[in-house]
Amino acid sequence: MSQTDWDTLPEPADDGAADHLTGQALPDIALPSTDGADVRLAVEPGTLVIYAYPMTGQPGRDLPDDWDTIPGARGCTPQSCAYRDHAAELAELGVAAIYGVSTQSTAWQREAKERLALPFALLSDAHLHLADALNLPRFQAGGEVLLRRLTMIVRDGMIVRVHYPVFPPDADAGRVADWLRANR
Known about the structure:
- The structure is a single chain.
- This protein is globular.
- The strands form three sheets. A five-stranded mixed β-sheet has the order 5-4-3-8-9. It has a two-stranded antiparallel ribbon with strand order 1-2.
- The chain has a single domain, classed as Glutaredoxin (3-Layer(aba) Sandwich).
- The chain has helices at residues 3-6, 76-92, 106-116, 129-134, 172-182; strands at 30-32, 38-40, 47-52, 95-102, 121-124, 138-141, 144-147, 150-155, 158-163.
- By secondary structure, the protein is an alpha/beta fold.
- It contains five helices and nine strands, in the order αβββαβαβαββββα.
- α2 (76-92) runs parallel beside α5 (172-182).
- Keywords: Antioxidant, Disulfide bond, Oxidoreductase, Peroxidase, Redox-active center.
- Residues 20-184 form the Thioredoxin domain.
- Pfam families: Redoxin.
- Residues 1-20 are annotated as: Disordered.
- It comes from Oceaniovalibus guishaninsula JLT2003.
């Protein structure tokens, strides 16, 4: 989606729903990953980038009705692709791992990881364990509870920076790289 296309979508407003996250420790919760193992973010060493996204579409499946009218809903694939494209740069800036997290099943996420050639794991919070423990902002669409798009930069289990709301989604990875460069 080009910048012009982003201009046609409603931009999400900062409703303060993520203000409480900076300075919090990640909860010790295991989330299933597309790489086949559970990931316990709280004990992952070093700097992590964790981006929460509503859902990736799948070829041949319709997105929920009125998806484009929900501020911040559209853009999960461009956001994931931007992290794919910035993965080497983020590693050079000291990021030990990138994780995308949504409420979709691991099987759903695995299709997206393979189709988009993502070099990092996607994590399923289908049971909302992480969302509930951190009180992550969410919304409902198509009968599902979905995460609002946000990005957390974590150092040794502590959230040190939160980007919320994230818009446009395809610029998120670049903003994270800029912040890491400025805050070494």
